[in-house]
Amino acid sequence: MTNFTTILLTICIPIIGAFMIYLFGKKPNQREAASFATAFVLFGCVLKLFNPGKINGQTLQLIELFPGVSISFFYDHLSVVFAFVASSLWIVTTLYSIGYMRGTNERNQTRFYMCFALALSATMGVAFSANLLTLYIFYELLSISTYALVGHQQNADAQFGARKYLIYLFGGSIGLALPAMIIIYQITGTLDFNYSGIVPAYFNPTMLLALLLMFLYGFGKAGLMPFHAWLPGAMVAPTPVSSLLHAVAVVKVGVFSIIRVLTGIYGVDLMQSLKFNGVVCGIAAFTVITASLIALYQDNLKRLLAFSTIGQLAYIIMGVGLASSLGVTGGILHIVMHAFGKITLFFCAGAIYVTTKKKYISEMDGIGKQMPITLSAFFIGALSVTGLPPTGGFISKWMMLQGAMDANLTIIMIVYLVSSLLNACYFFPIIYKAFFKDPATESHGIKEAPLNCLIPPMITAACSILLFFNYRIFTTIIHGVTGGL
Amino acid sequence: MLLGIETLLLILVLILAVVSLWIRDLMSSVVVFGAYSFLMCLIWTGMGAVDVAFTEAAVGAGVSTVFFVAVLFNTTRRIQFNPLDLSAKIFSAILCIGTGYLLMLGLSDLPSWGDPQALVNTNVSKYYIESAYKQTKVPNLVTAVLADYRAFDTMFETCVVFIAVLGIFMLLKKDGREPLKETSAKANDNLIIRVASRFMVPFIQLFGLYVVAHGHYSPGGGFQGGVILGASLILVAMAFNIEFVKQLLSIKRMLLLAVIGVIIFAGWGLVPVFLGQSFLDYSAWAALLPGTGEIMARSHSMLAVEIGVAITVMCGMYGIYMSLVSDGRFDKGL
Amino acid sequence: MSMINQLPFYVVGIPLFTALIIGVLAIVQPKLVRLTGLVGIISGAYASLTLFLTVQQSGTKYYTFGNWPAPYGIEYSVDTLNALMILLIYAVSLLAYVYSLRSVIIEIPSNKHGYYYTLYFLLITGLIGITITGDAFNLYVLYEICALSSYALLASGGKRATLATFYYLLIGTVGACFYLIGVAYLFIKTGTLNMGQLFEHIPSIYFTSSILVAFIFINVGLFIKMALFPLHGWLPNVYTKAPISTTCLLAPLGTKLSIYILIRFYFHVFGPEYVFQVLNIQPFMVWLATLAIIVGSVYAIFHTNYRSTIAFIIVAEIGYIIGGLWIGHPDSIAASIYHILADSLMTLSLFMIAGTVLFYLKSEKTSAFALTFRQLRITSISLVVVFASIVGIPPTSGFFSKMYLIKGAFAMGHYQFIVALLFSSLASLFIFFRLFEAYFYSKPPEPAPSIIKEDRLFTLPMIGVSTGIILLGVTFNYWFSVISRIIPVGLR
Questions:
Q1: Do C425 and A174 touch (CB under 8 A)?
Q2: How many structural domains comprise chain C?
Q3: What is the pTM of this model?
Q4: Measured distance CA(B194)–CA(B71) in Å, rounded
Q5: CB A110: neighbour CB atoms within 10 A?
Q6: What is the pLDDT of residues C158-175, one digit of tens each?
Q7: Count of alpha carbons within 13 Å of A410, Cβ hemisphere only?
Q8: Helix (H) / strand (E) containing C78
Q9: Does residue C144 sit at the B interface (CB-CB below 8 Å)?
């Protein structure tokens, strides 16, 4: 089996899985078994690609849509890392979804699993796209398939959240990213990613800057402020959606697309020579600080996590925007680290909700005594997102800091440090309340979440710690990206 | 001298056009409109377009006036005043004046009337004048152009008549579910009119046939002849009643004949296709008509298609009148 | 003359004779009407496909009627442009015809079916005749055939349809009359009606006022017929009230063919040099198209009745095509021509959907779509596909036309046009989700509605057209290469 077959398989398997889920729609056990099987097979496929030696930058062209642009796939170090994160976490999330969906007795579960699988297919498509158009197609598919997930509850809240989701994501992608892409095509005649950039350096810099901004905000899934409001709104979705899609797959597709544009369309040299990295970092830094500040005031746990996500995504963009070797490595590594950390946090929030129906932090006094395992996992996740050892988040943040130092951008360094501090400020009070405050109502002893909801956060929390020690698995691969810089 | 008369006619036409819009009583308006058509017919004649004048007289002044009357018979002859109308009228007046201005603007550099150097008279027209008789043996150039050089257009014009009758028939035809409306007209028993029309109709029809057949040599042809034939049937319907004329030509048969007229034309043109020539290439008929050369085949074919046209047009005029006057019920009318 | 050489005649002759045969059968043997129509339309479609492929292979085909040489007799000249359009007309009418086999039974009293189909096929004849002809006056005659038969077909949907059609008749007649006046001026100046010869003569009279007047009249006449803003007033009224069986045929093709005539006159009668260089109205026309798009989209949003909405979407789409044409960049012109194909299919699909929703659920308000998504499977899938294309989600065909329109507009610096395009994309997205939300966030009625099995005569053409919309997009490269050959050298 060649690598290209494997790539196609990664995109097709979830679709086949969705079809299987549809067939078994009436029988929950078989349906969920199908979902599981799909997740495992997908992970297996991605694992096959996860080998630095095999990466060779060849592209697979499927259909030529118009001159110079076709539906085509390739895989490089970046896509492998991203696909690995998304597919591995899907397995855990599937386990978690089963517990959560059954625990809360959600309706339309078949549709839920199907859309989930389709969203994963689109994510894989984005990861392996070899040009901007292919990426754009899968980006839109992802928006469509997650729309149904966001509106899953089908009540007024869900309608509002889903509408917001739609307006921001489609408004951005159709209104900004699409014309920017077409203009790039008009200028260059191609849309293929190339590490030396495809945009001609002699082109009018004002226009290039405008295009860059159109891309930054057009790929609204990255949640750069002020185009971020959809993400807190999307928290009306069931927690598995928030955890996998709105902490990992969807939002990171946004970041991934922006990284592709920065590195593959503009190219690092051009970014530096035109001083665009300053613009990118500036926007990201603004987002980082503002999002962290807003998060301080949140009472709804999932909303807090959403704002935290917005901040962390901007971190990654900032890291890549530094355009220094360590910064980029750190940024990409942070995709991994943040994914594991944030998904843990979401899993825990969901577990708390399934067990106690509590959504607000103010209600969670003393909950750590009731659910010690869940809250321990939460603690580890919070450590990782804040960037403290012994968790993976420390490594990536450290690298980004060093990257900022290499690039002589003291301001960015300060932003990193301040925001880490802010992260701590909004996470640790929760943990303090949970473990050390007395519960408002009588405690009923230990009453953990159902096993299905308990094991996944334990796994991901363990992974967060493991990654601290074994981060080299990823850095060796990522060096393939940064080596080209 | 002639120019003076034409100017006078044009002024009259303009006045009549305005008057027909001005009058509130629709019946009078229709009559004035008929007069307008007759004057137009004179203008065409003055310009040497006798065939056009003939058609205008038969269709514009004759049959369409009757159609208008038939419609008024089933609706009303009075206009209700509507304040909105005024603004609509002013708006249309502005549009008309704008259009007129544009047309005048283009007029300034058109070649003068009958200029022998102008392209309009030296290009295609010259060819027709020089070679039409040689190629078709038809002295009336207009017939040659209509029925042969541009026969394809004429075939579709015949279709237009067919579509008109079919469309009006389909829209007005009642399903039989709706109750009969008592019309105000009483049964027609005017003896003088009946006798007079009994006397006139055969001659009208004979003249119609002559116009059809003699189109090769004199102004006329299928359209004008068909209209005259149709008018004779309309006259019968008006003088007697609808039931009577339906016995002569039932509605179903009318529709069938109208299609058949088009089929005669199109089918005549289709035969050359089967003989390996192009559509409407009459010269191919030479192989089928004994004793005719290619040129005479063209000449004879024109008569054949004119007959088709005449049948369709006759049925068309008759059918439109019948539908309009009886409001699609085909029971009683004027 | 071989079969291949007769093809230009066959594509017109087959529907004509089908119409005439149906005209006879309607009176003699009404049972055979539908079968005859099917045979006619399929054989015509086959002929058009052969014609298209032949023209692709061996270049422009000429056909003279009555064997008279070109300027004296009437000539058909089939190049890639009209071969493509004929193929489109047949594709659309085949699907619309299959659809009508069932819908006519619902909408038209049974004793009028024969007459209805006679007019139906004469309309098809007219549409093809307009497209194929190389003679400016023959075009007018066929235009009349189209107009008259469409009036009758549109008006046959009850009293309201008749009134709406009456207004259309008044306005449409003015449009056709303007065209005729324009052609008359050209004839007086050049003495010919043959488009090829007109093209040769016109450069010598570029700077006369009469050619300008002719140009204005022909343009305004066609603008009325194609419902270009601000002359679009007749369209929404007619298309919302006429029977679906008719609008399925007419809405996709009627307005688009007027655009085709415009393109034909720009490229092969007045010539691109006159249109784009001698006249200096490009910015004005692009602005007009921009306004058409914006106004159409805004009205489409404000109407909640489904058919009114799609009628205004058509108005906006006309703006796309005219704008792309007048931008004058090869990419945007190609996109315009491609969009004629894409938009015809999209309009067809929209009206077919309107039909099934109306027939099964007896309503076309937004609320009816709550049940549409629950009960009508194929209809809702088609709805998703067609709106994906209208919004411009790849790989549906709507994406590619939009893409190249934007590309061309950017190259020529018409940024307002890009903004309008994107605005209309978002507006149609809004419209779709308004329909979708009516379903997604409404409580399912009790007892739960069962799935209605749509009639196969409805589903087949709907599936066909949805596939067409996607296929047209996926094979964009092929169509683009075909269309690129159409654009005159002066514009490349």
A1: yes
A2: 1
A3: 0.88
A4: 23
A5: 18
A6: 788 888 898 899 889 999
A7: 0
A8: strand C75-78
A9: yes
